[in-house]
Amino acid sequence: SAQAVTIALSGAGGQIGYAALFRLASGDLLGPKTPIHLRLLEIPQGVSAAEGTALELTDCAFPLLQSVTIDTDPNVVFEGANIAFLVGARPRTAGMERSDLLSANGGIFGPQGRALNDHAADDIRVIVVGNPANTNALIAQRNAPDVPAERFTALTRLDHNRAVGILAAEADVPVDSVSGITIWGNHSITQYPDLSHAIVAGSPALDMVDPRWARGAYIERVAKRGGEIIEARGSSSAASAANAAIDHMRDWVTGTRPHEWTSVALPSDGSYGVPNGLISSFPARSVNGQWEIVQGLTIDQFSRERIDASVTELLDEREAVNALGLIPS
Ligand code: NAI
């Protein structure tokens, strides 16, 4: 069998952790030949729930699962990690200002970035799921100066998968007849699900659905899907978020399908006018284990305005965490 892989996951006692860990342990990420070590990070209040999940993992008797450990110290948990899912974050509570939210999360993602810097394996790949995901990823990345910047990403694959599913339903085609969708910008209400280059059953999506819907209600539906789920389910998306995080990491390690792209929040190289270093969502392909931003897409005025609006929000968040001293300059 292949060499064992060490997967760290923070927020292991939470609902996304519960939805993700069994799939990771069963081989959904790296296939049926790669043994897995799971390293679970929690805060003291979450340890008991994580321990319960670990008991259930034992009770699954997964042949690939070599070990499960739980700790509250990121320096311990990230030791030798090849892959890190950073899920645990400080949620916004009533009356909390944005600066409070950013500084609470800076207190989490700064130390976790430093711990990854000092302890993770050389091939570490990081995905941040905990919100505000793009800016939390930026904080972690900037606190890990010895890790190549492009190893830090944030999850917009859930938005991407939602965009695929909702378009396929509208066009009444199977999801695998849909391609070429991009989520641009921030994982927030300002995100821009872009159908300009999308293909539905071999034809341009904008010929297959009402273009006014594509540039109106559709964008809002995708961006507000999280709220729709909370309304219906009584709690936020968990299985779909875990699924998207696994899709993201699997594609990163094993490659995207030929001729297709997905959406990934990664450090900008200046493509499409997005300022350098900002962790923003782009169309991307994974080639030889590295994300490459898809180049050369035409951006019309509608798209330009939407992308710029979301990027402006990310710049504001970066400025705020800079002002709070959360990222070393
Ligand atoms: P949850 O509240 O069920 O679980 C979060 C867990 O993280 C808790 O067990 C908590 O104790 C733990 N935690 C908090 N701070 C921690 C720290 N410093 N270190 C380690 N563990 C810590 O929340 P859920 O539903 O699992 O969601 C987790 C995060 O994912 C939230 O921030 C949520 O907003 C975000 N999210 C992001 C999505 C995306 O598309 N980017 C989609 C869905 C959720």
UniProtKB/TrEMBL annotation:
Its EC number is 1.1.1.37. Pfam families: Ldh_1_C, Ldh_1_N. Residues 156-321 form the Lactate/malate dehydrogenase C-terminal domain. GO terms for biological process: malate metabolic process; tricarboxylic acid cycle. Residues 6-146 form the Lactate/malate dehydrogenase N-terminal domain. Substrate binds at R92, R98, N131, R162. NAD(+) binds at G11, A12, G13, G14, Q15, I16, G17, N105, Q112, V129, G130, N131. It is an enzyme of class 1 (oxidoreductase). PROSITE patterns: MDH. Gene3D superfamilies: Lactate dehydrogenase/glycoside hydrolase, family 4, C-terminal, NAD(P)-binding Rossmann-like Domain. The active site is at H187 (proton acceptor). It catalyses: (S)-malate + NAD(+) = oxaloacetate + NADH + H(+). InterPro entries: L-lactate/malate_DH, Lactate/malate_DH_C, Lactate/malate_DH_N, Lactate_DH/Glyco_Ohase_4_C, Malate_DH_AS, Malate_DH_type2, NAD(P)-bd_dom_sf. GO terms for molecular function: L-malate dehydrogenase (NAD+) activity. It comes from the Bacteria. Coiled coil: none annotated. Keywords: NAD, Oxidoreductase, Tricarboxylic acid cycle. Catalyzes the reversible oxidation of malate to oxaloacetate. Belongs to the LDH/MDH superfamily. MDH type 2 family. This is Malate dehydrogenase.
